[in-house]
Amino acid sequence: MASDSTDEHVDGIVRRLGEMGLSGHTSKGAERTVIGVIGVGFPNELPEIIEVMPGVDHVARITKSWKHASREFKPTDTIVKVRDVEIGGNELVVMAGPCSVESREQVLETAHAVKAAGARIMRGGAFKPRTSPYSFQGLGEKGLELLAEAREQTGLPIITEVMEPGDVSLVAAYSDILQIGARNMQNFPLLKEAGRSQKPVMLKRGMAGTIDEWLNAAEYIMSEKNFQVILCERGIRTFETMVRNTLDLSAVPVVKRLSHLPVVADPSHGTGKWYLVKPLALASLAVGAHGLIVEVHPNPDAALSDGPQSLTLESFASMMDGLRTLAEPLERIVAPGTSRVPAAFAQVAV
Ligand code: PEP
Ligand code: MN
């Protein structure tokens, strides 16, 4: 829309699109308003019809295949609201918890500790995508119940993975955010079902997924009219063997340029080693991530999955302190309403 266009002009366009059986998505930025419209079999003369309407500056075709996810469709950043937490704004939202939900004690102890240290969302896997069929597969619905209990006690919203289209409604009944794992980035029936749930979805990048494929995967969710999508960079497979994956930090600013969707980083799966989590968490904040997802366990040596990359409760608190310090010069917010851990705790932290 032209910079001097009015709300009536915008309404007029949206109404005209409606008459043609199309729905316009209006995004108002500080500088200009953009009306995005996506449809199959547009009338050929659509650009000409709209271009001459009052208040219109110009009509441009979105050439990307991930149309809803593109900045052309929506120039302003998307904020995904989960209860009282906003992902996609100035706050670095930290999601933390165990790789797998193992027991009531483990989940509740972790939930209280990560909340005290400044986590805003609790993570925990109930349905686990394990490389070996003989590894611990997760507690299933029992795990979801335990996560819900942790939310009740702490007030932290929950994020947990869903692996199958048939489980989406079950997981959505318990969880505040559906997590789609790296191994399922291109499980298209799962993406569509997660889209239809109308729940916020965090889509992890596949370990061999290009950014273009990742955004197309997000488009599958958005094509079901679910715009609450969060992207998660969790490391890609490279020739390097010293780390489990190579956390592609460049993906964060690349995606922020291409898309309006929030991007979070996972330095746990992105490195596979607990002592690399804090430095890569700081780096993720520095490159502009909107959030982090981090694995934390009260006793990583005894964890049923991903112990080597899990932070202890103390080292999680130390990571949060580092993030608070770095956030200041970057003018970002981390863990509002909480402060540095007591000195006694900090001494044992790495
Ligand atoms: C997880 O978050 O526990 C997980 C399995 O992650 P990814 O899908 O990135 O491997
Ligand atoms: Mn894990």
Q: What is the CATH topology descriptor of the largest domain?
A: TIM Barrel
Along the chain, the helix and strand elements come as: HEEHEEEHEHEHEHEHEHEHEHEH
| Percent range for β-strand residues | 15-25%
Tell me the Rg in angstroms: 21 Å
Content-based structural category: alpha/beta
Q: Any ligands, ions or cofactors bound here, and which?
A: phosphoenolpyruvate, manganese (II) ion
The main pleated sheet reads as: 8 strands, parallel, barrel
Q: Write the CATH architecture name of the largest domain.
A: Alpha-Beta Barrel
| Rounded mean pLDDT score | 95
The total count of strands amounts to 13
Overall shape: globular
List segments where confidence is low: pLDDT < 50 over at least 5 consecutive residues.
none
CATH superfamily of the largest domain: Aldolase class I
- Sheet with most strands: strand arrangement: 5-6-7-8-9-10-11-12
Terminal-residue CA separation: 53 Å
Total individual domains? 2
- How many helices does DSSP assign? 11
Summarize the structure.
The longest helix has 18 residues, at 313-330.
Q: What report would you give on this structure?
A:
The structure is a single chain. The protein has two domains: 7-51, no CATH class; 80-330, Aldolase class I (TIM Barrel, Alpha-Beta Barrel), CATH 3.20.20. It is 34% helix and 15% strand. The chain has eleven helices and 13 strands. It has an eight-stranded parallel barrel with strand order 5-6-7-8-9-10-11-12, surrounded by seven helices. The protein has a two-stranded antiparallel ribbon with strand order 1-2. A two-stranded antiparallel ribbon has the order 3-4. Strand 11 (263-265), helix 9 and strand 12 form a beta-alpha-beta unit. Helix 3 packs parallel to helix 4, helix 6 (188-196) packs across helix 7 (211-222) and helix 9 runs parallel beside helix 10 (313-330). The termini are far apart. The model has no long low-confidence stretch (mean pLDDT 95). Manganese (II) ion binds at residues 99, 269, 295, 305-306.
